[in-house]
Amino acid sequence: MPPMLQVSNLSKVYHRGRFDRTETFRLSADFTIDEPGIVGMMGPNGSGKTTLFELITGSNAPSDGCVLVQGRDIHRVRTDERDRLAIHYHQSYQVRHFRSLYPNALMERAGSDYPVVHLFDEPQFNTQDGYIGFMLDFFRRLRGEGRLVFLCVHPNERFHLEILQEICERFIFVQKGTVMPIPDYDSLVSHDACRAYLGDLLSERTA
């Protein structure tokens, strides 16, 4: 049985311009998730979180490396079927579109009828009318159905951290294009870079 998600030696490099190849940003990632679960992701703005989501869903082409979803290279799958492997919900749950330089007729079928990896990019947690509970139940239901859920949150309220602690089984911290897998919440809040990122918010929580 292949891993749910395998990100192998993945990189995305941006340059100043078409003719000026001065490097302006580089994202590097290499990690594997074997089983269904809920993964919390955080990091400063501009660190590369959304770029990583776009690479996992195949809506952005890597400079090097590959992304395998249940053993299938997402960038070799038909663009109209990639969301059957990995789907990206951006804030208001608008699904990102795909692009490819190759016609679908030359690409592989997804081999799945329903998304395997669900990536939520800064979902809005409304504090009224039990909405948070509804969202957490939805994430748990996806996990219970054998899906892999990514929850990208930019914590600016104390309860955002409590949500991550309650529902996420593992974490990824992204900083300046470096993707760091972290095994649990305690390790996350003990990580120096993460503590610096959370700052007073973390102090308020532990006070």
Automatic annotation (TrEMBL):
Q: Where is the ABC transporter domain?
A: 30-91
GO terms assigned for molecular function: ATP binding; ATP hydrolysis activity
> So which residues are the signal peptide here?
none
What SUPFAM superfamilies would the database entry show? P-loop containing nucleoside triphosphate hydrolases (SSF52540)
InterPro entries assigned to the protein according to its UniProt record, in alphabetical order: ABC_transporter-like_ATP-bd (IPR003439), ABC_Transporter_VariousFunc (IPR051782), P-loop_NTPase (IPR027417)
What highest taxon heads this organism's lineage? Answer: Bacteria
Instruction: Reply yes or no: does the keyword NADP apply.
Output: no
Keyword Nucleotide-binding (UniProt) = yes
Q: Which Pfam family, just one, is annotated for this protein?
A: ABC_tran
Q: Which Gene3D superfamilies match?
A: P-loop containing nucleotide triphosphate hydrolases
Its keywords, alphabetically, are: ATP-binding, Nucleotide-binding, Transport
PANTHER family linked to this entry: ABC TRANSPORTER ATP-BINDING PROTEIN ALBC-RELATED
Q: What is this protein called?
A: ABC transporter domain-containing protein
Task: Give the lineage.
Answer: Bacteria, Pseudomonadati, Pseudomonadota, Alphaproteobacteria, Hyphomicrobiales
